[in-house]
Amino acid sequence: MLYALKIAIRYLTASKAQTALLVLGVAVGVFIFVFMSALIGGLADFILSRTVGDISHVTIKAEDAEPAILISPEGHVLAVTEKGRMRTATLAEAATWIPLIEAVRGVVAVSPQITGAGFLTRGAQVAQVSVTGLEPGRESAILNLDGYMVEGAARLGSGLVVLGQRLADDLSLGLGQTLRLQSSGGVSTMLTLSGIFQTGNGMIDSSSVFVSLPTARTLFAMPQGVTRIEIKLADLNAADATALRIRGLTGLDVVPWTDGAEQLKEALNAQAQTGYFLKSFALITIVIGVASALLLSTYRRRPEIGIMRAMGAGRGFVVVVFVTQGALIGLLGGLMGAGLGYLALLPFPSREAFRPGTLPMDITQGSYGLAITLTVLGAILASILPARAAARVDPVTAISQ
Amino acid sequence: MSALVRVEGLVKTFGSGEAATRVLRGLSLTLQAGELTALLGPSGSGKSTLLTILGTLMKPTAGSHSMLGTDLVAADDRALTLFRNLHIGFVFQFHNLLPDFTALENVVFPTAVREGRETAAARTRGRELLARMGLAERIDFPTANLSGGQKQRVAVARALMNRPELVLADEPTGNLDRAAAMQVMALISEINRDEGTTFLISTHDEKIASLCRRQVVVGDGVVTG
Questions:
Q1: Parallel, antiparallel, or unpaired: how do β-strands A253-256 and A149-152 relate?
Q2: DSSP characters over A123-140
Q3: Which residue of A73, B60, B96, B148 sits 20 to 30 Å from the alpha carbon of A329, by its own alpha carbon?
Q4: 3-state secondary structure of B91
Q5: B113 contacts A307? CB cut-off 8 A
Q6: Cβ of A10 and B100 within 8 Å?
Q7: Which family does this protein fall into (chain A) (predicted)?
Q8: What DSSP line would sit under A141-187, residue for residue?
Q9: Chain A residues within 8 angstroms (CB to CB) of chain B
């Protein structure tokens, strides 16, 4: 094996220019593979972060009261309770569950919330809004309010409200101004505008207001419990498994973000498939390039192969010499291509700093190890045909050439 | 002396049907251990085919072939490859060295390919052989930088590397000038005398043949003299 390696290296170094071109060709294929991996991976992360990055990855919703019928002993219907009509569903034991949920692997933030509809009034102007009560200190746990603030602060205290830029513009609101917020249940309170945000999401920016959890309790007459618990995960793709785990732990109605996100998943899958195709073509190019170059080498070295066979080299030895050449070409090309790919990706901003108008390349998703491994395997595969052809060389014919 | 190689009724036919060409037509020959034999005959007489069969690079169409008591007709490719490596050396007309290797690397090849690496012992043996061929100063030279006579001496050294019982030389001096040819023949005679290695040398050259103790003449696929 060691001797076959020496022969293979000697053959490769004997034709330096040819070998260099071959390695370069493989490197270009690997470069494309790495570049595509970083682009497809970065793009997928970018799309996910823009679509679901600021929403709850796993949500625990209060189950509506089940419909019930009260029947007298005589069989008469005494009362009918329709689902969701009698009261706002609540998670009464939220305080008990939160520490348990926080301990679940992969959970990075938990946000108990009270949500409901309301009307924001300033003078004669009225706007229908979606009200979310957040726990002070966890304002940016799910939606990164801190990061989106354009004026003021995201801190929610007693009597404070934070709302979107478009809503503020619609109502001509400025920081420090007072406004009235009335819940759908008719409870109203005066609040001071302490912050204005702009998420880029028109729905949120024009109709969402955030208040503290105690303020929401007052508005929605909910002295204890919450209406939902939103959970953020370290890995978006772990939402289904984590939801199952939390459901098993709490017995509550736990919904992962993937529920109802089939279109997004299909789009991401289609994008991933495109990436696989492009990477496969790059690999196929490598295999064809290595195979053709080694076939040529086999033909050129037929007399030498004949001599080796005459001197006692077995067919297996000849196969190993040519397969080793393929593996070395793959390894060198793989390392060079992966290195060039890494260097080419360095100037791109990190995934945390993607800016509009730039390619969302993610240098961490270059699949460098996979690219090198697949290239070496592909090159070995490509060299088997030439190696077998070399092993079949008839020494008598080859020596007489 | 005892019989080292024995072939009887050797037939070799190339092609089939109307295009079939019978090169050997029942050739029989015995080589005794330690012989220095010249194989003479006109072109197309079957000399090279006989050497190829004796070198286990080709099997006869019919007939028997044994060496050191081993039936080489029945052996498979793997067994023949090992047998060839251990017991038979080759010297070709055009030296047929590996062009990308040095003189020493060429000489140690037959041992290294069997052992899987170039051992220190093999390199020592290779250096000794090259020194004996008068190439001590050319050991690490790429073979491309050697003269024709030097290349052929490297080829002789390579043929002797594994201490084979039989060395087959197909026109070993055919591509050399007279001085170089005589130098190579002198080395072959010396090794035959000192080490008892059996040589079968195919040649057209009567002068070269006269340096061998035995002459075998092949004509029309059989031994004629």
A1: unpaired
A2: TTEEEEEEEEEE-TT-TT
A3: B96
A4: strand
A5: no
A6: yes
A7: Belongs to the ABC-4 integral membrane protein family. LolC/E subfamily.
A8: SSS-HHHHEEEE-----TTEEEEEHHHHHHTT--TT-EEEEEETTS-
A9: 1-4, 6, 10-11, 14, 303-304, 307-315, 317, 395-396, 399
φ and ψ of B161, to 5 deg: -55, -45
pLDDT 10s digits, B10-32: 999 998 888 889 999 999 999 99
Rounded CA-CA distance A132/A114 in Å is 6
Q: What is the CATH number of the domain that holds B217?
A: 3.40.50.300
Alpha-carbon distance of B86 to B98, in angstroms, equals 20
Alpha-carbon distance A245 to nearest alpha carbon in chain B (angstroms):
57
* Interface residue of B49, B78, B109, B175 to substitute, partner A, most A CBs within 10 Å: B109
Phi/psi at A342 (5° precision): -60, -45
**CB–CB of A1 and B113 under 8 A?**
no
Residue type, A61: K
For A293, the 3-state DSSP assignment is helix
Does position A82 have pLDDT exceeding 70, yes or no?
Answer: no
Q: Enter the DSSP assignment of B199.
A: E
CA distance, residue B11 to nearest chain A CA (Å): 17
Total structural domains in chain B?
1
Asked if B99 contacts B177 with a C-beta cutoff of 8 angstroms, the reply is: no
Domain of B175 in residue numbering reads as 3-223
